[in-house]
Specification:
It contains nine helices and no strands. It is mostly helical. It is rod-shaped, with a radius of gyration of 43 Å. Belongs to the sigma-70 factor family. ECF subfamily.
C-alpha cells in the first residue's frame, strides 16, 4: 500500500482515507474540542498527506502515526491562523453603531405638534399677559423686576401672570375623548339594573 500511495494511486489513497479518517477525526477532536474544526483538520490532513505522499517510506507498518503527525501539525497551524485572524480583527477600527433615529424623528414630530398647540394657546393671550409670561416664566425675572421692565405696578404683573397661566392651562388641556363623561366615573361604569317588564 505504501508503494501505491507513493506512486499516486487514487484507489490506494481512498482506502487509506477509509481506514484512518475516523482515527484522524478523533485525534483532531481531542486536540481542538470542536467537531467542526476537527472535520476541517481531517480534510486538511488528507490534503497534506496527498501532497506529501512521496515522503512515505516504501517499507514500514501502519500509516496511522504518519497521518496523526500531519493532523497534529495541521491543528497547530489552524490554531495559529485563527489566533492571527482574531488579533487582526481586534486591531480593526470599531464601526460606530448606527443610531436608530426613528425615536428622535418621532420625538421631533411630537415636539412640533406640541409647539403648534402652545403657539396657538399663546396667541389667544392678551399682549400684556404674553409679556408678563415671557418676563417672569421664560426670562426668570421676579415680579418687581418684571413690573419695573413693563412700567406697571407689581400687583398688575401678578394678576396678568395668574390669568395667563389659567388661560394656558385651559387651552393646553388635551381634548376629552369622545363618548367619555366628565366627572364621576363611578356612575358611568356602575352596574346596570334590569327592569322587570
Amino acid at each position: 500500500m505504501r508503494k501505491r500511495i507513493r506512486a499516486g494511486d487514487h484507489d490506494a489513497f481512498g482506502d487509506l482515507f477509509d481506514a484512518y479518517a475516523r482515527s484522524v477525526y478523533n485525534h483532531a477532536y481531542r486536540l481542538t474540542g470542536e467537531w467542526t474544526l476537527a472535520e476541517e483538520v481531517v480534510s486538511l490532513t488528507f490534503l497534506d498527506a496527498w501532497r506529501l505522499r512521496e515522503r512515505v517510506d516504501e517499507e514500514g507498518g501502519s500509516l496511522r502515526p504518519w497521518l496523526l503527525g500531519i493532523a497534529t501539525n495541521v491543528t497547530r497551524n489552524t490554531r495559529r491562523a485563527a489566533r492571527r485572524h482574531s488579533a487582526a480583527v481586534a486591531r480593526l477600527p470599531r464601526d460606530e453603531a448606527v443610531r436608530d433615529f426613528a425615536d428622535e424623528v418621532a420625538g421631533r414630530l411630537d415636539d412640533a405638534a406640541r409647539l403648534t398647540v402652545v403657539r396657538t394657546a399663546l396667541a389667544k393671550l392678551r399682549r400684556g399677559e404674553r409679556e408678563v409670561l415671557a418676563l417672569c416664566v421664560w426670562s426668570g425675572l421676579d415680579y418687581r423686576a418684571a413690573a419695573e421692565a413693563l412700567g406697571v405696578p407689581v400687583g398688575t404683573v401678578r394678576s396678568r401672570l395668574s390669568r395667563a397661566r389659567t388661560k394656558l392651562a385651559k387651552h393646553l388641556e388635551p381634548p376629552a375623548a369622545r363618548g367619555q363623561t366628565s366627572g364621576d366615573r363611578g356612575t358611568a361604569v356602575g352596574p346596570l339594573r334590569e327592569r322587570n317588564r
